[in-house]
Fold this protein.
Amino acid sequence: MRTKLQKHHYETGSKTNLIAFLIACAVFFLIMFYFVNIRNQPFNLAFANRAIAIDAVFFIGMSYLLGPLAGLFPKIFVSKLEYRKSFGLSGYAAAISHILISLLIVPGSVFESNGLSLFFAMIAILIFTLVSSTSLVKIESFGFEKWQKIQRLGYIAFILVILHFVLLENGQFIGRQLGQITLAFALLVLLARIVVMIFKK
């Protein structure tokens, strides 16, 4: 039988936040290592911005993947649910950083030619802002069920993020190996949620 998640499964602590931050940094530098040492790209702001964007997808995805995994494999993953908030906020911070850096370094012509992709990204970040803001207040302020429903709006935003990077520059990102890995991971997050919904008891 699937474990029903309770309020205490969403609570976190300073140690958890620190570990999540360190993991986020490690993933960022791992991606940069791939760019610089495997693809022979320069270590510059443009590629750092790409790494930050992938970091955002990974950590927001992980924050939503842990729930279904805990439902399907409670003995392994219920104890890891404390990382959901930290992963989610780390991913949101990375997404905001990616947006700000893009506004500084990306030519206006690129924005103009990627209107639909950027529209999906804009709606996604608005939803994630709502979700993140509710993560910073006490659950009792909303009531657990209402709070949980707001948090799950993030799945809609995550789908919009997928559409954003699939359509970006006419699909160039998903034509690359790292883009394909990012897409596969994002689809896995959604698949895990669908499986839990189907087998929910």
About this structure: Residues 75 and 104 are 46 Å apart (CA to CA). The mean pLDDT is 89. The longest helix spans residues 45-72. The two ends are 7 Å apart (CA to CA).
